[in-house]
Amino acid sequence: MNEHYEPQAIERDVQQQWEAARAFQVSEEPGREKFYCLSMFPYPSGRLHMGHVRNYTIGDVITRYQRMLGRNVLQPMGWDAFGLPAENAAMKNGVPPAQWTYDNIAYMKMQLKSLGFAIDWEREVATCSPDYYRWNQWLFLRMLEKGIVYRKTGTVNWDPVDQTVLANEQVIDGRGWRTGALVEKREIPMYYMAITGYAEELLADLDTLPGWPEQVKLMQKNWIGKSHGVRVGFPYDLRAAGPTSSPSPLEGEGRGEGATGGTIPEQGILWVFTTRADTLMGATYVAVAAEHPLALHAAKSNPELAAFIEECKKGGTTEAEIATQEKKGMATGLFVKHPLTGEKLPLWVGNYVLMGYGEGAVMAVPAHDERDFEFAHKYGLPVKTVIRTSADAVSVPWQEAYAEHGTLINSAQYDGLNFEQAVDAIAADLSAKNLGEKKVTWRLRDWGISRQRYWGTPIPMIKCAQCGDVPVPDDQLPVVLPEHLVPDGSGNPLAKSPEFLNCTCPKCGGAAQRETDTMDTFVDSSWYFFRYCVPGAEVMVDERADYWMPVDQYIGGIEHAILHLLYSRFWTKVMRDLGLTRTREPFANLLTQGMVLNHIFFRKGAAGGIEYFPPDEVEVSRDEQGKIVSVKARADGQPVEYGGIGTMSKSKLNGVDPQALIEKYGADTARVFMMFAAPPEASLEWNDSAVEGIYRFLRRIYGFARDNREALVRGREAVDALAQATGAQKDARRAVHENLRQALGDFGKYQFNTVVAGCMKMLNALTDLKADAGPQAAHEAVIAEGFSLLLRLLSPIAPHLTQHLWSELGYGSDILTAAWPQVDEGALQRDSIDLVVQVNGKVRGQISVPAGADKAAIETAAIADANVQRFVEGKAIAKVIVVPGRLVNVVVKG
RNA sequence: GCCCGGGUGGCGAAAUUGGUAGACGCAAGAGACUUAAAAUCUCUCGGCCGCAAGGCCGUACCGGUUCGAUUCCGGUCCCGGGCACCA
Q1: Which residues contact A618 (CB under 8 A, 6 or more apart)?
Q2: What is the 3 state secondary structure string of A179-211?
Q3: In whole angstroms, how far apart are CA A648 and each of A260, A527, A590, A665?
Q4: How far apart are CA A587 and CA A879, in angstroms?
Q5: How does DSSP classify residue A892?
Q6: Does chain A have fewer CB atoms within 10 Å around its N or its C terminus?
Q7: Alpha helices, DSSP H, located in A380-497
Q8: pLDDT tens across A71-124, in order?
Q9: Nearest CA among A354, A373, A331, A199 for reference residue A273
Q10: In the beta sheet, which residues pair with residue A620?
Q11: DSSP one-letter code for A551
Q12: Between β-strands A553-557 and A461-464, what pairing exists: parallel, antiparallel or unpaired?
């Protein structure tokens, strides 16, 4: 053994052994229990950041733990290789996204290997490879056949200067990030996947996932958002719309760019959905989205309204922006009829009504809905109270109680009914008039997958002037994405590439053009875990996937709690319905790792663009409380804005590269440090100041083995000598086993920070034991037993050092195949037990009682304690509570 | 704005889920060893009072339930994640 712990040499050596033994390559073994341990694959952004190290270390620790428990463990790895950052890098550096991506993969793969993860690299998948994305295309076509994929219009962010569609991330304060131009909403045709067809099952099957965090299931449930309500029809008649309405059918034609610009019937029904049909008698107006056909119709003869609708097109498309923007509206001059009373209600356009959600129209009951209440007060619309709640709904400001369920009032024949009765009665009456029925709706919307971008899976469709949109035949798959193009920020380079664009129509053989939209990258990540199971398959999946699936443990960031996990569940169910798998749910157990956060610094450019600064390139001044007051860039000394703390990301440049850490201290230190810093599910503000302590801990383990080498070798053989242990030796052995018991429990709960703490305590117990505290043979047996337990317990977290020492001490050639440690119950026994004594809940003393003492003896001993007497003396003892093994509480009066 | 989490010493955290708040570690301070440095070892380390024994306060804030609350309940503030085109 070397005098000093040299992690680089040890790690190189151990990794070579694993490599030579192909230690982590696995195959299907039908008789053996399998365990599929999967970490979310990385986007190859350039270098690993600490969030990756945390994610993959957790996955690797679980992999090695399950392996030591005897299971056939698969841990694969791959690359979520399509996406926006590659295009941004391409624009910046003039390098094709493909080249940038493959370079990043090569570097990050080297980093992952240096961390010593037990990965079966034979199964590596990159989603930008035609062998992978051809199955995106293939399944897309199957879904098209089944009607699960369909076409309709959707809203996108449009940069009028670059003439390009922007991602939400590229819109900053309503402006394009590169041009600073005010972004507009635009309606374009897109392909959709009908995930709403699976809403019921996606909701119900959450109950079949006991291994998922409640938090995540609740988020998904709320996202799917099943609601029971009533669809209500408000009849309208444009001929009776009043003096302002004399629309010329030609006037204004062609200005509405929306696809809904067609004519609408003069008489019809405006449908809305409500979960509060009981308040229908309190509806005082109806509001539609700016893009609603009735709004567009009214705008033809009303320039002011047309201008307002134009204005509504400004601003972002995200729900957050719409929910926080100032609520604005304008009367259309049109009216609709209340379906029950026949009353004339004004029709308004509201910027808070979304065309893509529900019917694009809402009935407004200002007395019992907060948003309607505000809107009505702003525009002087009437408020009619129709529910008796714990507060009368008449005053400004709004009170939450106004929205409660209650008894109907001012509602004619419905007066006195409660919520359920009122909904039933009103739904029945509407139904009799063909103006409504009960209906279940979902908050979940269908998944728009078309992206007007280059670096993604080409959508396998051909546009033919004769035949329309024609699917690419299976035998022409994959539609290969050319890899040499460089985007320039103005639209999709595929649309400017004749070699990609021009093709022949599979139907008529005439000249045609390819669809240039690519798929949302969430498609790529919705089924990659199937592909890992079937390396080299000539089909999408084969029977090998039936052995491995479902994933037994999935690990990834909490930020994926909804979208990625929901899309993956949806795709799995579609694959099942197509007969490709038996799996109903892809992930049996889910661990949502907390985010690794760091400070964010940025500067806004003159054009409105935004420039981020890495935390190590700025100078920060703080006040006495440690709050950041000012920041300067090191490079130019000019001020920089502080953006708070947030998740480490490529785009915000606040990621910390683990490479320096690994090079200085080795992979084991990086791994143990990451696990010790916080429990896996907690978020973690990055700070590497404690890393020295971890290095010190590993060095102490190494030093203990070096200094006690012979004793550790001999003691391992002399198990019988454990029985001779006396006094301090017994105490040390008890401490080892007590901490082992706690650590094994925490291992099972995947609470690795306290596992590491337990390992430290075990080492402390062993190092504190004096060599002359009892018989030498017993000493050697105690430290050898404890050290061998410690090495095995720690091996999933620090695999290199523990493997090295395991073989150095001759405990075995391969710690991977060693038995998982077990507690010796005999070592835990105590002669006496320490109890805390409280008086009225405050600690006043400590007593030690024999292990078998009964309640009466404990009470007597507790009250006899000198300090306890000071507080009990002269007072009546009301009762004494004894919590076995913990404490005694003496309750006194007066 | 809506949905989901979180808030404990100077710092990361722990607490068998209602039973000694601060284990384990970092940082800091004092000391030992050393020509010196590094490494290592010993001690102190939530605040206030006290020579000490010990006492009072303390788990974001306000209130409640309980013999006993970091833990349960009601309310407030702050921070993080998501909000459908970042992945």
Answers
A1: A601, A631, A632, A633, A634, A640
A2: CCCECEEEEEEEEEECHHHHHHHHHHHHHHCCE
A3: 42, 25, 22, 22
A4: 52
A5: E
A6: C
A7: 419-432
A8: 999 999 999 999 999 999 999 899 999 999 999 999 999 999 999 999 999 999
A9: A354
A10: A631
A11: B
A12: unpaired
Residue A317 CB closer than 7 angstroms to strand B? Answer: yes
Q: Could you check: is the Cβ of residue A196 within 7 Å of any atom of nucleic acid strand B? A: no
Q: What angle do CA A745, A749, A753 make, to 5 degrees?
A: 85
Are A805 and A705 contacting, i.e. CB atoms less than 8 angstroms apart?
yes
**Residues 455-484, chain A, CB closer than 7 Å to nucleic strand B:** none
pLDDT mean across residues, chain A: 91
User: pLDDT of A683-693, one tens digit each?
Assistant: 998 888 889 99
**Protein-nucleic contacts, chain A 87-126 to strand B, CB < 7 Å:** none
Tell me which residues from 544 to 563 on chain A have a beta carbon below 7 angstroms from nucleic acid strand B.
558-563
**Which tokens is A856 given?**
């009466």
Per-residue pLDDT for A335 more than 80? yes
Distance A214 CA to B73 C1' (A): 21
- State the Cα–Cα distance between residues A759 and A756, nearest whole angstrom: 5
Q: How far is the CA of A833 from the C1' of B22 (A)?
A: 23
ipTM over 0.85: yes
Strand partners, A845: A837
Nucleotides of B under 7 A from a protein CB: 1-6, 11-16, 19-21, 23-27, 39-41, 54-56, 67-69, 79-87
Q: A836's torsion region: left (phi>0), alpha (psi -120 to 50) or beta?
A: beta
Q: In chain A, which residues from 771 to 830 place their CB closer than 7 Å to nucleic acid strand B? A: none
Task: Decide if pLDDT at A259 tops 60.
Answer: no
Nearest protein residue, CA measured to C1' of B12: A677
Prediction pTM value: 0.93
Buried b (16+ CB within 10 A) or exposed e, A252-267: beeebebeebeeeeee
Kindly state the greatest CA–CA separation across chain A.
109
d(CA A668, CA A282) in angstroms, rounded, equals 67
- Residue A625, pLDDT > 60, answer no
The 10s digit of each residue's pLDDT in A649-671 is 877 888 888 999 999 999 999 99
Q: Are A266 and A237 in contact (CB under 8 A)?
A: yes
Secondary structure E strands in A809-856? 832-839, 842-850
- Residues in A 423-462 whose C-beta is less than 7 A from nucleic strand B are 443-445, 447-448, 450-453
| Count of beta carbons in the 10 Å neighbourhood of residue A23 | 16
Sign of dihedral through CA atoms A304, A308, A313, A314? positive
- What is the distance in angstroms measured between the alpha-carbon CA of A371 and the sugar C1' of B78? 26
For A54, half-sphere exposure in the C-beta direction (CA atoms, 13 angstrom radius) is 31
A219 burial type by CB count under 10 A (0-12 exposed, 13-18 middle, 19+ buried): middle
End-to-end CA distance of chain A: 69
Q: How many helices (H) and strands (E) does chain A have?
A: 27, 37
Other residues' Cβ atoms within 10 Å of the Cβ of residue A182:
16
Whole-angstrom Cα Rg for chain A: 34
- Is there a contact between A606 and A566 (Cβ–Cβ < 8 Å)? no
Task: Report pLDDT for A269.
Answer: 95
Closest-lying nucleotide for A692 based on CA to C1': B26
How many CA atoms lie within 13 Å of A882's alpha carbon, on the beta-carbon side? 17
| Pairs from A213-216 (Cβ < 8 Å, separation ≥ 24) | A213/A590, A213/A591, A213/A592, A213/A681, A215/A561, A215/A592, A216/A558, A216/A561, A216/A565, A216/A590, A216/A592
